[in-house]
Here is the input.
Amino acid sequence: MITAERKPLDEILELVGDKKKILVAGCDTCVAICLTGGEKEAEILASELRILAEKDGRAVEVEHTAAIRQCEWEYLDMIAEKVEAADVVLSLACGIGIQSLAEKFAPQLVMPAVNTNMLGMPQEHAVWLERCVACGECRIGLTGGICPVVRCSKSLMNGPCGGSHDGLCEVTTPEKEEIECAWALIWERLKAQGREELMFTERPPKNWSKSSSGGPRKMVREEAKPV
Amino acid sequence: MTATEYKAGSNLEKILSEGKFVVTGECGPPKSTDVTVIEEKAKILTGYVDAVNITDNQTAVVRVCSMASAYTAQQNGLEAIMQMTCRDRNRLAMQADIMGASTLGIKNVLCLTGDHMSFGNHPEARGVHDLDAINLIKMYKDMRDEKKFQCGEEMPIGPALFIGCAENPFADPFELRALRLKKKIEAGADFIQTQCIFNVPKFKKWMEEVRALGLHKEIKILAGITPLKGVGGARYMQKFVPGIDVPQDIVDRMAACEKGAPSQAEGKKIAVEMIKEFTEIEGVAGVHIMAIEWEIAVPEIVEAAGLMPRPAVA
Here is the structure.
């Protein structure tokens, strides 16, 4: 799923500026599951903004709403009235949702209230781990179902670098937590599968033109288009 | 071997192909445009090493680029091994730079992944990692041997290169380490310099695996050495540098010495002992001395290890 984290309140206030009618728009799909941007979180942010405005003696009107999915036109129709009535919309959806909202209601001012951060797997309650970068050329069939593009800090394609130690990467997370070495995991998985030889086959350079390096991507399913 | 049979015809390649024990050194370019830094380091090392590695933004800290510094070293009479990391350049830049280096007379290149940006002075930088080191070795080999760019297009004259790689016998998983060297040989590496060695028994064990696979006959292996200046550095590397294995007995030896000259003398002594031990290991073709910001120690170590004079090449 797509995960996102709410921006710091100061940054949100800066984005809102001196606008009086504020709509906080949540999305009840991915960002709701990661407890960042669902209707409940939209309500909380709206309350925070109201309390702050009152404290600072600013007269603002803050409302909240949520779309089932902000990334689909038909669900946006359902919140159209509220969006159009606002001076600014603070979206708690992922980057796709925010842009869908901005595009559908252009030139309405739509601001991001979150930083979209990854395609993550919920490892346990309230913990998500990055598992995919949508590179457009999946090779995990050759790496025991573990993605080296996203899980190796250097996106190596041909095995561990010299910094792998005790199953850990030489890099730590920005929070200084240890990271597992993707290639140590891949090696263990391939051994368990009896497919060790895959480790010793040279993998050619990746075709990054299939990733965002190739420019904005578009997918069309001709067979699914209405006739 | 005639000149036409050499891949690049560098001193390094010639000495190795004659089966003589090689000594390489290392020079870190400065964090400023002070060209005298490289000139001074080159002066110290000339005559004592057969070629010198010029590091490429080592530890992810910005410095004068390896190509310009390699050129300066060569202008000062010291053959360069230009380091090239995958961290800072995509395949276009890595091909353009190696052709540029070749036109400047640089013949040796060391292909590396590169330390991660998070270790350096620009941790917010975007890491490139378009290719990995094995892809890079293969790309340079194809440019040299097939006269082909990575995309498959042909070029009339390819860069004459002696292609190196690094390997760390002390990284995990250990069982992969010799096999990984094999992969680098298959990609096209001509020589390998190891991570600095302090744990000699473990290095010997790795060499056993290398010999069992017959790899020492397919690639020239230079054993990495870092002379210790004091116990502080030894402890720091032991505790904090991933992939460096400093056994306790080495730390104890350094700890038993007084700071300053006695410690430095002990560090040099350990380096000399190791070099002598490495000359006895079947398949070790030379040593790579990485005296980090302590180049002045190198002549004495090389001398004491009985590796002088360095062989002259035609």
Summary: The first strand of chain B starts at residue 22 and ends at 27. Chain B has one domain: 3-304.
